[in-house]
Design goal:
The protein has helices spanning about 15-25, 90-105, 170-175, 190-200, 230-245, 250-260, 285-290, 355-370, 375, 390-405, 410-415, 425-430, 435-460; strands at about 1-10, 30-35, 110, 115-120, 120-125, 130-140, 160, 165, 180-185, 210, 215-220, 265, 280, 295, 300-305, 310, 315, 320-325, 345. About 35% of the residues lie in helices and about 20% in strands. The chain is built from 13 helices and 19 strands. The protein folds into 3 domains: about 1-150 and about 335-410, FAD/NAD(P)-binding domain; about 150-215 and about 270-330, 3-Layer(bba) Sandwich (FAD/NAD(P)-binding domain); about 225-265 and about 430-460, no CATH class. Strand 15 (about 300-305) and strand 16 form a beta hairpin. Helix 1 (about 15-25) runs parallel beside helix 8 and helix 10 (about 390-405) crosses helix 13 (about 435-460). The strands form 4 sheets. Strands 1, 2, 3, 4, 5, 6 and 19 form a 7-stranded mixed sheet that branches. Strands 8-18-9-10-14 form a 5-stranded parallel sheet, covered by helices on one side.
């Protein structure tokens, strides 16, 4: 059996594992080994459907040391007027380059693709079956906890008859032309992407049926723009969010206030959303999604027959020559959390909501800046993935607690301020803080922060 030593053994070379390794490389002289079952770095991006794009601007996704994209403003399409969103192919190529040109070129990183960690540092190579023993001098890093469920590889929870065509969205560009009718299954961002692809590719809205088990709240993309030019939308949005939280009398009232502030949106004004997974869309995208009128709200699909869909809430007749697009994979299938820093390992999780790569980079910075597990965990409370508005409140509470803890440590605060993965730091740097309109927003955020946090505590336990 081959054997070698390493300081950090990272299990998983997806976005979070790479982001952690990238920051660790800058902050230490450690030797790092990454192990992944795939043949390339980049995790689920290697299996993404061809029309997927980032939810958030490219400028604050990826690893801290390398830009993704050019920071350009889209001049056409459904994202017109906003910062560019990298395609899945661009993101995959970016992570391949991070591994090849950044990590491996350092001479301090080893990558073992097509391999799995069996425990206690033993790695099995999937093609040969041979084993390698890795002696970890410092810490094992579990980067697989946030691995996304994806349409191409997830296990379906419903039955499909043999003569029914049901595909992952990966096959949609090749299969769409062979069918007259389309039924999109699922209410998440993948389903939204599939509906939008069909419409933008020329399908008529009348050809599309959309199975929406639970209506989602959606985040207005204008709220997530990171440049100073959008300060009134981004920091102004933060101000309006805090005001909504401060004044809300219940979680339903909070959602209504977020919608009234143009921060959250819904598919149908007459149907109240019940889930909040954080999908981010533009107003133009929402307008197109609303063109689809045939929406089935009978819960999750249980089985599909040639002439009918059987759902939890009833049976729906099926149209002939229908292509079913399975978008039911849950990106993150759990809302549980664990301590990030443990005696035997580091478990990468979100410590800022909806920002896994920023979280992984900051966890690496915390790992290298403090001595004890207690000190480190005090700065890295895991933020659970959201499912409902109630859980969104809980996650925001943890989010705010972490943000305050970071602000008490000048080194951490300075690192965040200058990290490209911090989406809002750039906007603050690019504006004139003496401008009366800018100062008004800044001062109002300071004014409402404490009462908003206090009311958030009440809403979280309501």
């Amino acid at each position: 059996m081959d054997r070698f030593e390493t300081d950090y053994l990272i299990i998983g070379a997806g976005a979070s594992g790479l982001s952690f390794a990238d920051t660790l490389l800058d902050e230490t002289d450690a030797h790092i080994t990454l192990v992944d079952r795939r043949d390339k770095a980049g995790g689920h991006w290697n299996d993404a459907y061809p029309f997927v794009r980032l939810h958030q601007p490219s400028s604050y996704y990826g690893v801290a040391s390398r830009d993704l994209g050019r920071g350009a403003i889209d001049t056409s399409g459904l994202n017109k007027g906003f910062e560019e969103l990298a395609s899945g192919l661009e993101v995959a190529a970016y992570f391949h380059a991070v591994m090849q040109d950044r990590l491996l070129q350092s001479g301090r990183v080893r990558f073992l693709p097509m391999s799995e960690h069996l425990g206690d540092g033993e790695v099995r190579h999937l093609l040969s079956g041979k084993a390698t023993q890795i002696d970890v001098r410092h810490r094992l890093v579990n980067a697989g906890l946030l691995e996304n469920g994806i349409p191409l590889t997830h296990e379906r929870r419903f039955r499909v008859a043999d003569d029914v065509v049901c595909i992952p969205p990966n096959a949609l560009p090749h299969m769409a032309r062979l069918h007259d009718q389309f039924t999109v299954l699922g209410a998440g961002k993948t389903a939204m992407d599939s509906v939008l692809w069909l419409l933008e590719s020329g399908a008529d809205a009348s050809q599309i049926r959309w199975v929406v088990p639970r209506d989602p709240w959606m985040i207005n993309r204008v709220f997530s723009q990171p440049s100073g030019a959008f300060y009134h939308e981004s920091f102004g949005g933060t101000m309006r969010q805090m005001e909504a939280v401060m004044d809300a009398t219940s979680v339903d009232d909070l959602a209504d206030r977020m919608e009234a502030a143009n921060l959250w949106m819904r598919l149908d004004p007459s149907v109240r959303p019940v889930i909040m997974h954080g999908p981010t869309v533009s107003m133009a995208e929402l307008g197109r999604l609303r063109e689809v009128r045939d929406i089935v709200r009978l819960g999750h699909v249980e089985s599909i027959e040639p002439g009918a869909m059987n759902l939890v809430g009833g049976t729906c007749p099926a149209r002939p020559k229908t292509l079913y697009i399975d978008c039911t994979a849950r990106a993150l299938g759990h809302t549980d959390t664990w301590p990030v820093f443990q005696e035997d390992q580091i478990v990468l999780q979100m410590i800022r909501l909806y920002q896994p790569t920023f979280s992984a980079a900051l966890i690496a910075k915390i790992e290298t800046s403090f001595d004890t597990i207690k000190e480190k965990n005090a700065l890295a409370a895991p933020v659970p993935m959201t499912d409902t508005v109630q859980t969104w409140v809980v996650s925001q509470l943890v989010n705010a607690t972490n943000q305050f803890a970071w602000s008490q440590h000048p080194d951490i605060k300075n690192w965040i301020t200058h990290c490209r993965l911090d989406g809002f730091g750039r906007a603050s740097r690019e504006v004139d803080r003496t401008d009366p309109t800018i100062k008004k927003i800044y001062d109002r955020i300071k004014e409402v922060s404490f009462p908003a946090f206090a009311n958030m505590q009440k809403l979280a336990t309501a």
